[in-house]
Amino acid sequence: xxxxxxxxxxxxxxxxxxxxxxxxxxxxxxxxxxxxxxxxxxxxxxxxxxxxxxxxxxxxxxxxxxxxxxxxxxxxxxxxxxxxxxxxxxxxxxxxxxxxxxxxxxxxxxxxxxxxxxxxxxxxxxxxxxxxxxxxxxxxxxxxxxxxxxxxxxxxxxxxxxxxxxxxxxxxxxxxxxxxxxxxxxxxxxxxxxxxxxxxxxxxxxxxxxxxxxxxxxxxxxxxxxxxxxxxxxxxxxxxxxxxxxxxxxxxxxxxxxxxxxxxxxxxxxxxxxxxxxxxxxxxxxxxxxxxxxxxxxxxxxxxxxxxxxxxxxxxxxxxxxxxxxxxxxxxxxxxxxxxxxxxxxxxxxxxxxxxxxxxxxxxxxxxxxxxxxxxx
Length: 377
Ligand SMILES: [Zn+2]
Known about the structure:
By secondary structure, the chain is of the alpha/beta class. It has helices at residues 2-5, 28-39, 44-74, 100-128, 130-138, 144-163, 171-181, 186-210, 214-239, 245-248, 262-270, 292-300, 325-335, 354-376; strands at residues 9-15, 18-23, 79-85, 88-93, 255-257, 276-280, 286-291, 339-344, 347-353.
């Protein structure tokens, strides 16, 4: 879903340093409600009520995502943002912990929030008095407040159950993966959870299309794609165990001096730049990393004559050739940078980059496969 999320999003508010944003496609949801209500000839009063229900539902979705995000924080994992899509919310955690117990608690915290809201609504209804409640309900004229509580209870029970469907990477699937990972390797656990997730997703898509539930079909589609991507990623990370940075680093890369101007860097970018450039000080030590888009933005902002060191470059954790590749990838993901500079004897000797890792693993697998087949013949 990362690709989908990179588009425009409207910042709504921030809580505990986590920005909540509305993805542009979210507008499709109220538009769809409005369209189908007008099509059915509903009164404006009930249209407003339906839109209000959408608003309340997504407020509960935001609380669910904060359940994940704030639990992750307890394990030292930050959350970049929470984005609302028409099909639900996504909390962009810096990383998912590889420790099954931590993943379990972070995942369970989301649905637990919905269960808590539902229980609270039921308790409030009980406190209002069951007699009054049933009189209201059966004699018509149920108060707006009772209706609101009923809706809150119902929608949160639904959110709770829906998220627990074991379709990885939905919450239920993650809980399953973490439970399996307690007794088997994480890659195998992920593969099982992802296959089940894809099967459930196909069922959901088929049901959604046949029964005319476009939202369900859409959710099924995203679950299907995301399950495959996560399974591949887990396999990739696992393949890096026991490998040093030196084995997978790129020794041909783009670097430039700290006194290079933005204009010169833009020229270098055109002549064959990379996704990012390592900015090197006079002492040969890396000063930081600049994204390609940082340079383009600086040109757009009229800062072409500024030196790169004054932009300034983003601070990058420095790693060494003999460091563990698996651990360094975790650090790279936390930093949010596309690559990390590798330094040996105070000299920049390479960069570690995700794409290159992917190629390394593919080649290694291809070579491994060739060995097996030659051994068989
Ligand atoms: Zn969740």
